[in-house]
Every structure is written in C-alpha cells, then in structure tokens.
Amino acid sequence: METLQNPRTTVELGTGALAAEDIVAVARHGAAVTLAAEAFTAMTASRTVIEELAADDKPHYGVSTGFGALAVKQIVPEQRRQLQRSLIRSHAASSGAEVDTEVVRALMLNRLSTLATGRTGVRPKVALAYAGLLNAGITPVVGEYGSLGCSGDLAPLSHCALALMGEGEVRTADGERVPAAAALAAAGLEPLELQEKEGLALINGTDGMLGMLTLAIADLHLLLSTADLAAAMSVEGLLGSDAVFAADLQALRPQPGQAESAANIRAVLAGSALIEEQKTGGFTRVQDAYSLRCVPSVHGAARSTLQHAENVADCERASAIDNPVVTPDGRLESNGNFHGAPVGYVLDFLAVAVADIASMSERRTDRFLDRSRSHGLNAFLAFDPGVDSGHMIAQYTQAGIVSELKRLAVPASVDSIPSSAMQEDHVSMGWAAGLKLRRAIDGLTRVLAIEVLTAARALDMRDGGVSTSRSAPAVTAVRAALREVVPGPGPDRYLAPEIEACRVAVADGSLLAAADSVLDTPLL
C-alpha cells in the first residue's frame, strides 16, 4: 500500500539491524539484495564453530540430534544431511489461501538478515542462495495456515527453504505458479544441498510476523494521517467547530500523538470559509458530537500505539533469532528468543486501534446522511431524495466492514495450543495476529475512502463544487484530486467503482499528497 518517495533500488545486508524502509523496498518495490563483506566474515566464522561441533561425538541440538520432542535422538554423521532435508520437507506443511507475495518477500529478507549476522552457523553459500531467490523475483508459495508463532514461523519459512532445495512451488517474477526446480533453472540458480544445522537455521525465526508488522506500520503511517484528513473534511462538511483543536487545549492533556493529530486537523482546516461562517452566523452549537470533537484523543491514542509497535519492530529487526544460536564467543546455545510474544502483542494492539479509528470514521459518515444531524443537507446526500438513495448503502458497506474489524480486534496472542508432544507447550499465534491485522488495514482503508467520498459529496452540495469551493485550501485540493477520478453529485450512479477509485486514492497516498501540496509542511 505505502509508496516510498525515493525507494531504494539496492539493499545491502551486513551484521547490523535491518531498516524498516529496506523491508518495504524489497518486499513491495523489488529492490535488489546484496551482502556486505562483514556478513561473509561473520558467517564464515560461525560456520567453523558448527563444523567443529559436527566432528565430535557429543549431541548438539540441530547439528547431530533430532528436533523438538525428537531432540533425544542422536543422528549419525552419514544421516545428517538427510536430517536437514527431512526437516524442511516435513515442516513445509502449510494450507489454505496463498499468502501475499509482499509478505513472503518480507519474511525472506528478515531471515536473510539474520543469516548475515553470523549467529546461525550457516555457510555464506546459503545466504547467497536466499539473496538469489529474492533478486530473481522468485517467491515460494505459502499457505496462510501453518505457523503458531513459536519455534519460528515454521511452515512459511520451510516453504522458502524448500524452494532453495529446488522443491515445492513458487511464483515467478511475472506471477506464474511453477515448480521451484523450473524457476531456479530459468534464473540460472542451483538447488541448495543443506548441511548440518542449516535447515533448522532457515526456519527458526519470527520473520513472517515481523515482516507483516513492518509493512503494517508503513501502511498505518499513511492511514492515520489520512484519517486526520478525512475527519477534518467531515468537520468542515458538517459545519463543525475548529476551536476544540486549539494547541493550548490539546496541551492540557499531553498524551503522545494527540497533539500531532490536532495539528493535522488545524492545518487542513486553516482558511476554511465554511468554518469561519459558523462563527459569525448567530447562535452556534456549543459542542460538536464526540466523533468530531474527540478525534485527536482517539487518533492520538492510535498514533501512540503505532509508536510502541515501531519500538518493538526496531528491537526485533536488530535481533538474531535462531535456536540454537552461535554466540559471539563461539558457543552453541539453546534459547527461547524465537517466541513471538513481543511481536504478536503489538500486532493485536494495532488491530484494536484500527478498529476504533474505523468505527469513529463510520459514525462521522452516518451524520452526513441523517437530515436531523447533517445541518441542511439532503437526506442520504441524495440528488433527489426518494427517487435517489445517495450514499445510503455506502454507509451499510462501512458498517459491515467496521463490524468485521471489531471481530478482528479480538487478540490472537491470548490463545495457545500445545504442540510437538508438549515440548512446545506455549505458542504466540503471532502469525495469525499478523494476517488478521493485514485484513483489518484493508478494511480501514475502505472505511476512510467512503468517509472522504461522502464528505466531498456533502461539500460539493454545500458550495456547488470545486470551482466555487468555500473549503479550506487543503480540502479544496483533496476535492479536486478526487473529482479527477469520481464525478460530483448527481442522480444515482453505479457506486461501487467510485468507492474503489477513492480506495485506491487513499491507499496510494494521492489524496494525502493533494493536501500536502498546498500546505507549508506535510501532515504528520
């Protein structure tokens, strides 16, 4: 959804933290991936540790033992490569609808970043093979079910490792679904034969849920600013007051994020003739409804939640998640860092914020359609009420989405189902939290689009259209941008394409860019 202003064309991975914009660039914009010299040095050093352990006669988890509840079985040297192959084949057990390409690419980049730290013990050849898949635009086919968000996103990562081996199915750069072996051959890539520990190192991370979190954060930066814009348009279209958004009033409650939301609304409404007319036209309402007056409180809370999620994501991207892990001093140690609780919690938390932002947006839209609350507008914004129904059913669509968003806000991370014969007896469900957040973000995008579409129609009905606009300059710019893809008020038309056109304009940032084009500084 989110469009980078200057997307990177190449991302270099070293031993340090991966940047959020790097994930967006690779996952969404097809940026190439390279490995820094320090990554090769680190991987070579840790591989030496694994090879030394493989040569002794002691059991070492992931090197010379089985996995999970089968870790009690020691594997003889001549079976250890088969051990790694069997691990990947058996764990590539996903099912259900195919996961979006951008999610799989983000997952792959996160895993490659961990490999590059030198903490997993894989050969540099493994990391190069992973980079080769990404750079060739080869995306393994992954089903939505299969990860419990603990011991890594096991099934999704296993499908990616399976493709490295030349097995399973993939999507090519042009979207064709083909056998992995054929895609590798067409790209000039060789199937990878895994050695000790390498299969385990390829699947033991929070990479999928972290990828979804990183992409969601990028989307929500755009959508929360758009929500402020939509709310400002509704305040203006409903002849509300801008007094409540004053900086000194907001400062009385210094909640992080609230001041930013209020500042956005003030900027969008600056210079509005419609707002100013309400201040000189006799008796005015002393208070607007909560869905107008309390926008900074709600949108600000969502911004604070987003900041918390960013902090968690930053920490996770700076992590080397594997089990066992090769420590900087050369030890191979088991750990629980693969548990997805930190990421799962904030994925769920964001879904709560998304649902509430959408709920408030729907309430503002509904006010436009009710003659008793719209302050002089036609019922349902119909061109000829009774003959026409206007935006009556657009609000139904919003209501249906908002109802689903409330269901999606139920946290996944409070659930846990024991697995692997009770060895893995508490799991995070972070992968499921990520998938439902993606659906929630899509819903929020559609809800905001309908609010903007409705507010623009109401404003056109108040002042006759963009050419005679009495809106604030920023709102006028947004109305003009929207009218390039959606006609103004008139008799009822086929409405679904207009909703979709506005959804695209919200998702690609063009409506926000229209507002920014006439403001001294971009919206926060």
From TrEMBL:
GO biological process, one term: L-histidine catabolic process
GO cellular component: cytoplasm
Reactions accelerated catalytically: L-histidine = trans-urocanate + NH4(+)
Recorded superkingdom: Bacteria
Pfam families to which the protein is assigned, alphabetical: Lyase_aromatic
Keywords linked to the UniProt accession: Histidine metabolism, Lyase
Recorded GO MF terms: histidine ammonia-lyase activity
Pathway: Amino-acid degradation; L-histidine degradation into L-glutamate; N-formimidoyl-L-glutamate from L-histidine: step 1/3
EC number, UniProt record: 4.3.1.3
Localization annotation: Cytoplasm
Family: Belongs to the PAL/histidase family.
PANTHER family, per database record: HISTIDINE AMMONIA-LYASE
Name assigned to this protein: Histidine ammonia-lyase
Annotated source species: Arthrobacter sunyaminii
